[in-house]
């Protein structure tokens, strides 16, 4: 009985492990595991997100989507950075050469060698100079 349970456990574990590398039939190259009702998806080197019903609420157009933090995620396209919200909307446009972490509600941004500060709403509170 113990060997039987061990075999079942191995088969289930292998199936879960193999699923990550398996090409999904949905048209995506990779579907990462769901977490909090959403999953990162990849196609042709680009990333986006789907919800549990398979709806693509963050389009698969980003070179990189960084981890979610406080309901937002930094995104990157061709070396430019911005932020999306949980609805998948770009509320800070993907235009900056650099966006630092938010501290006390502000983040340093850089564009074309000029630096400034934005608030968490994406407003430039210290203009680029």
- How large a portion of the residues is in β-strands, by DSSP E? over 45%
Low-confidence stretches: 2-23
Residues in helices, as a percent range? 10-25%
Instruction: Calculate Rg over CA atoms.
Output: 19 Å
Overall pLDDT, averaged?
A: 86
Query: Tell me, what's the shape?
Result: elongated
* Strand line-up in the sheet with most strands: 1-2-3-4
Descriptive account of the structure:
- The strands form three sheets. The protein has a four-stranded antiparallel sheet with strand order 1-2-3-4, with no helix packed on it.
- The chain is 16% helix and 46% strand.
- 19% of the residues are buried.
- Residues 2-23 have low confidence and may be disordered.
- It has one helix spanning 2-21, and strands at 30-31, 38-43, 46-51, 56-62, 64-65, 72-77, 80-85, 90-96, 98-99, 106-111, 114-119, 124-126.
- The protein starts with a helix and ends with a strand.
- It has 129 residues and is an alpha+beta fold.
């Amino acid at each position: 009985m113990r060997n039987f349970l061990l075999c079942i456990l191995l088969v289930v574990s292998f199936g879960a492990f193999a699923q990550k590398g398996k090409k999904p039939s949905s048209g995506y190259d990779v579907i990462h595991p769901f977490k909090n009702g959403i999953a990162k998806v990849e196609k042709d080197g680009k990333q986006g997100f789907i919800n549990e019903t398979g709806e693509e609420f963050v389009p698969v157009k980003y070179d990189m989507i960084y981890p979610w933090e406080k309901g937002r995620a930094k995104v990157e396209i061709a070396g430019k950075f911005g932020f999306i919200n949980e609805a998948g909307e770009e509320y800070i446009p993907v235009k900056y050469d650099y966006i630092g972490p938010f501290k006390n509600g502000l983040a340093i941004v850089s564009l074309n060698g000029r630096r400034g500060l934005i608030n968490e709403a994406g407003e430039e509170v210290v203009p680029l100079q």
